[in-house]
Structures are given as structure tokens and as C-alpha cells.
Amino acid sequence: MSGNAMDPRTLHGITKRGVSDIIVEEEFVRLLGEGKPLRLKMGFDPSRPDLHLGHAVGLRKLRQLQELGHQVILIVGDWTAQIGDPSGQSATRQMLTAEEVRANAETYMQQLFKLVDRDRTQTVWQSEWFGNFSLANVIDLTRRFTVAQFLARDDFAKRFRAQQPIAITELLYPLLQAYDSVAIESDVEFGGSDQRFNLLVGRDLQAMMGQRQQQCFIMPLLVGTDGVQKMSKSLDNYIGVFEAPNDVYGKVMSIPDGLIFDYFELLTDAPDEEIAEMRATLESDGVNPMELKKRLARDLVAQLHDPEAARRAESRFEGTYQRGEAPEEAQPIPLAAWVDRLREERGEAPAGSDPAAIVLPIVPIIVGEGLAASASEAKRLLQQGAVEVDGERLTSQTALLREGSLVRVGRRRFARFVGPAGQ
RNA sequence: GGAGGGGUGGGUGAGCGGCUAAUACCACCAGACUGUAAAUCUGGCGCCCGGAAGGGCUUCGUAGGUUCGAAUCCUACCCCCUCCA
Asked: What pTM did the predictor assign?
């Protein structure tokens, strides 16, 4: 019996929108229909505590299911973190101390609960089962799969073909992840399309160990702000869940147009019909894509923060970037402290006719305040006309500064001098 | 255990005694154009001193050596890959 049939619209939203594949979909739908709380498995790599929108795709799915009464089991991967997910190209990882893991877990959860429901989330640690694992257990695990099976996995195959090293421990990674499914008796495991193999191993292993097989819920990978590669922290094309409203807003505005609808589909609740409508309007040149991005940016900031923050971020964006006004918030630079410091270090005693203003070398200040990585870079930027003071492009290495002077380096770094010149 | 190939700047990858801070491509940064989009064009892309011209220092797996001079030659060591066993 199909139980209390789900609202078809809700069901459609769960199984169709932003989904790459569900293995096995009919099974999954049937389980949902049974109305019993399902155990939704999600892993967390404690060496990477920061979440970005790429993670949000899956987390939003979990949230939807939580709203239907299902339970998220969050696994802190304190063992797999030591191996490092071979999905990346990175080599062997550094071991983390228990302290670091705990600290990272805290950061992680702080970000996590922006997107999933804390009350329907249970946290367990891999060490709860792997802590007592013996060599016999490991052998038992490894014996169940073959090298050929693992080499079938795309990234292993690629590396093997390219004659790149694959550590034997890396082969262990999918096994441990799979065993997690057994340990927690997972009903459904979620992952991006690069996780397909790992999810399927879990499914297989459960069957081998006499459990009901988990369903694998596979989602498309979110493309990062560069418009090419999947969003990831190491590629620096990410929008972090932890980022300030202005940063989230700005980063969303900088994504390539081609990504707009992917983002709407994967990251917002905007109804399918509305998305289709936006698409149509855009194709008929009825709207500047920028306007759609603004809506997207507002939506995302509101999700990660709140609607008020979204409004503020938008007006800041419009002011600073679209109308070229000075941003109201900018990194403060203590003017008097720099005057003293420069005088001490190089005996500069610049004088001016205006007692409130002072001429100072700008390069050490830019570097010292972290607006450029080195003096060489600062000079380069200066030469390229990338440094402005109070709206004037700086052509020399000295600048006339006063309290309230605004320095802009490149397109997005702003700082403002505070305090008196302290003559 | 044996044989061979290889380790160069964020990535790919040239160079194989001086013309090499090191070709090219990608990524990245800045400027122009814009919608903080894309594409395009221009410039840049080790560090330090200098307003500049220019100068200095440190880089080509690690440590030594040969040479007026080494990423390039020699020695030892470390690491990776392939094939054979």
C-alpha cells in the first residue's frame, strides 16, 4: 500500500528539481511513501570545516526531507579525513589532532545549521566504530572488492592512466565511507555526482552484510564562480556559507550569466514556472541578466543571513559599484599610527600647508594594511593605475592623506583612514 | 631484486654550461570596454632598494662538487612513474 500519498508537487520538487540521479528512484519514492522517518546519511570531512554553496545543494535537499519528518545522521569523518578524499587530486593528508577535529566540527556545525534543521540531526563520529576496528576487520572489508572494481571509478582510472600515484590508503577511502552506511544503517545517502562510486560501494556493502540497501541520491555539482570548474575552496571559486552578506552578494553578481538558472534551480525555492518565465524573458531580451542576478543574490543572502541583510547588501552594491559611491564600510587604517611609524622608520617628516592633511608614501601603507601582498606588487598596482585616493587615480608613490581619506586598491579593496593625522 | 624514464615558478610544460628570473599555454592580477557577466584589447605576474634609470638577493627535488660562470656537467641522497621478477 502506498500509504499516505505525498503531495505530488512536493514529491516532484524532491525527486526532480536539482537531481542528477536517484538509485533506485522507485525504491526511494516507495520509502518516502511509507511515512516512516528515514535515516539520511551525510558525511562531514573534519579537515575541511568550511561550507560553501556547492554543499548547500545537498543540504537544501536534506532540509526538505527533514520537513517531512526524516532524520539526518551526520557522520564526523575523523578517520577518512586522515586519508583524504581521492576525489580531489591532493596527495596524502596531514593527520589532524583530536583538538583540531573538534574545533573544525564546531565551525562546521555552526555553518551547517544555517541550512539544515538542528533538531532533526544526529551527530556520530566514525571513531565510534572504527576506534575498535582490528586488522581482521580491515582484511574482511578489503576482501570484498577487487582492484578492477575500484579502477573503474573515474578519477582512479584517470590517475592510473596518467601514471599518477594512487596510494593504497586511498583505495580504503570508499570502503570506510561504505562501512559508515552499515554502521548507521543508512536508508539514503546523499552526494554530488563525484560521489557516485562511494555511494554505490556503500549500497553494495550493506547488501553483503545483510542489511537493506541504501538509496543513493546524487546531485549535480555546482559550478563555481569561474563558470568552469566545480565549486571548491581550493580553486577559490566558491561562495562560502560563512561569508558576510556583502561578499555573498558581490560574488553572486560576478558569476557568469550562463550559471544563473543553474543557481536558481539548485539553490533557491523559486518555482519552476517562474524560472521558466525568467528564462523566456531573458531570451527575448526583455531583461538585463544583471537584474536576474540581483534577485538571485538577494535570495541567497536572505537564506544565509536574513532578508534585511539582503536589502542592505543590495543597496550597498548599487551604491558602490553601480553608482561608484564610496562604500560606507571599509577597512579602517589608523592615520596617526602610520605617521609615527613612517617617521620613525624612515625619518619622513612631510609637511603640508593644510594642517589636517599629510603627505605620506603609500606603498608601505598598502602593504602593511594587507591591501597588497608585497611592495613589488603594490608598486605594480600603482603603475597600472589601480590605486585611488579619494577618487583620484594615484600616479606617484606619495599621497595626500587626511582623516576620512578613502583608498581603493584594485576593484574591490577599500580602506579608509581614521583618526587625526596627529601632527 | 633487475631495467628504463622522470622531479623546473599556482598548473601543464620548454630549456640541457653564459643571450635564462627562466619560452609557451592556462590560471591569476590590473587597466580599457561593461552589467563587479562573458568575449575582446593592453599591461603585469619571485623578493628587496630606488621617483626612475638601474642595482642587489633568492629560486629549477635535497646536499655537496667541477667551472670565471650551472636549471643545464659530476657525486650522493630523497621522491614519483613504467616494465620485468
From this structure: 0.84
